[in-house]
Amino acid sequence: MIKFGFPPPQVPLTDRNGQMNFAWTNFFQAQYNAIQNLLGNPLVPSDPPITITGSSPFTYKAPTRGFVLVGPGGSIEFSRGGRAWFAVTSDLIPMLMDDQIRVSWTGAIPPTLNWFGG
Questions:
Q1: Interatomic CA distance for residues 7 and 23, integer angstroms
Q2: pLDDT digits (tens, 9 = 90+) for 10-41
């Protein structure tokens, strides 16, 4: 099995077109696979689903280290420190305390969010 560590600090999360860089895609996929291997299939959240309140977009702030799993139906952005937002194409996002994701959707039904606290 190939393991991927954090990409070097000089590698941006996204390229000029707003697409996630290959190194980050591999990192997030490896994290997802590791969680699947530890917890088994299907991936079961350790906490109740996150309740989405209000309309699109919805912002969630990580209470601790962990992962958030975003269900289908929305576009996802990630921010560390709240200064810049980056598009995310992975549905499973590793987060540190106070990291944020912003989920946008169209229609009446928002995507599901599940928190896996670490």
A1: 6
A2: 888 888 888 888 888 888 877 777 776 665 54
- Which residue, 26, 63, 59, is CA-closest to 46? 63
CATH of domain 22-117: 2.60.120
Name residues whose C-beta falls within 8 Å of residue 49's C-beta, 6 or more positions apart in sequence. Answer: 112, 113, 114
Nearest to 104 by CA among 66, 58, 40: 58
Instruction: Sketch the domain layout of the chain as residue ranges.
Output: 22-117
Distance CA 18, CA 78 (A): 12
pLDDT for 56 equals 92
Phi and psi at 62, nearest 5°, equal -65, 125
Q: What is the mean pLDDT of the chain?
A: 81
For 6, other C-beta atoms within 10 Å of its C-beta total: 10
Residue with more model confidence, 45 or 92: 92
Do 69 and 101 touch, CB atoms closer than 8 A?
no
